[in-house]
Amino acid sequence: MGNNGVGMSINVNELDDIHCDNCNGVAFGQLYQLKYLPGFMSPDGTPGVTFFAKGFQCVACGKPFTIQELAQRPLPKIITPVLVDKS
After folding, report:
1. pTM of the model
2. Spatial strand order in the sheet of 28-37
């Protein structure tokens, strides 16, 4: 039975970074696709703009990555969580 994250302490410095395949960068920005939303499809009848998350882009070189591409990469080493007794 899992603890659903309750009482877990994770040191993010121990987690593996994801690196850009192109330049080995580690900073990424989120990419969105923007779409025009016609008034007849909008909840209040007003035309507007909507957006969808499309993936990430390396800040250093601009190479885009889809979420699916990142999910297909080999998993890093497993980190054993440190459980903290809150009692």
Report:
1. 0.61
2. 28-37, 48-58, 64-65
